[in-house]
Write a structure and sequence with these properties.
2 domains; two-stranded parallel ribbon; 68% helix; single chain
Length: 336
């Protein structure tokens, strides 16, 4: 059984998700995400085709909180611009679904997929359907009473994307690595790699919190926040635990410091396993990711750097997953 076509397909699906993540960042940062006020999975594949249809879409947008509070003077040409950005994001999601489904059906009919992979891909397909609903659930939160989406729903939308991406990526990695030539590492190295992966997942969720709460537009200095290591108003909400999730100051503080912790872990593992070049690449990924984050903060969230920051989070997560798949526990290892 030739594995190359299946591996290429899985890799291409991963690339499509990465592109969609970038476009999603652009959509959010251009405030285009609430411009399409309806979810039409089938008929929504076509944009407005004439002036009357454009005017109808604008009338629907005029009923939203975003229009009433921020964009009440937007003209039809500017509306078309933000509408088309959101349209491209939704269209790309549909195309990604087709890129996944059509080859899946073909490979299934041709019996080119092992049973275990069929089960995993079926789960991915189901999660993809859930993701479409979650995306609309997120958008809907900004169409009722507030001119922005819930940061909790934004985090859920991003987390689902990360889970789908990770499952596809792992399926691809298994195809290209198999069980051979695994590198032996100590128990401590594996534990730290799992820890860095877990913290990166949390970091990505907090990135969504930062975006949803517009926390990147405050304390635009580095490394200090308002000339302080620990800023004021870190725990002004009651009860205190609520600050961890809803206080923009605390959310940015956590997001910043998680990056330091992840990089320190990556340095430790890379030094401990100096012969593994992939660990140096992982460290580089984390450093680039942190650098993009700092630039995004200092420049007050420019679209290109902020979107690249989001994309590189997924790339770093993928590299960490790849390394964990390529290592095994060293035999009779008793030291940390």
């Amino acid at each position: 059984m030739r594995k190359e076509p299946v591996a290429i397909w899985l890799f291409f699906c991963c690339i499509m998700i990465i592109v969609m993540i970038f476009i999603g960042g652009v959509t959010r940062l251009t405030k285009a995400g609430l411009s399409i006020t309806e979810w039409k999975p089938i008929t929504g594949i076509l944009p407005p085709l004439n002036e009357n249809q454009w005017l109808l879409e604008k009338e629907k947008y005029q009923k939203t909180p975003e229009y009433k509070i921020f964009n009440y003077n937007i003209d039809i040409e500017d509306f078309k611009k933000i509408y088309l950005i959101e349209y491209i994001h939704r269209l790309l999601a549909r195309i990604t679904g087709l890129v996944f489904c059509i080859p899946f059906i073909y490979f299934f009919i041709k019996k080119k997929l092992p049973k275990a992979l069929i089960i995993k891909l079926s789960i991915i397909f189901t999660l993809g359907l859930v993701q479409g609903c979650a995306g609309w659930y997120m958008v809907k939160s900004g169409l009722v009473s507030q001119p922005h989406v819930s940061h909790y729903r934004l985090a859920m939308h991003l987390a689902l994307t990360l889970i789908i991406f990770s499952m596809l990526w792992l399926a691809f990695v298994r195809y290209i690595t198999g069980q051979k030539n695994k590198v032996e590492v100590s128990t401590s190295s594996i534990v730290l790699l799992i820890l860095s992966l877990s913290l990166t997942f949390i970091q990505i969720i907090y990135g969504a919190f930062v975006a949803g709460l517009n926390a990147g537009l405050i304390y635009n200095t580095f490394p200090l926040m308002d000339n302080q290591i620990i800023p004021r108003d870190l725990f002004f909400m009651e009860p205190k635990w609520l600050n961890v999730f809803q206080n923009s100051v605390a959310v940015q503080f956590i997001h910043r410091n998680l990056a330091f912790i992840i990089i320190i872990i990556a340095i430790f593992v890379a030094v401990k396993n100096r012969r593994m070049k992939s660990l140096l690449i992982l460290l580089l990924c984390f450093v680039v990711q942190a650098t993009l984050g700092v630039i995004t903060l200092l420049l007050k969230v420019p679209i290109i750097f902020a979107s690249a920051h989001q994309v590189f989070a997924f790339i770093s997560f993928a590299m960490n997953l790849y390394i964990l798949k390529c290592v095994k526990l060293k035999q009779q290892n008793k030291c940390w």
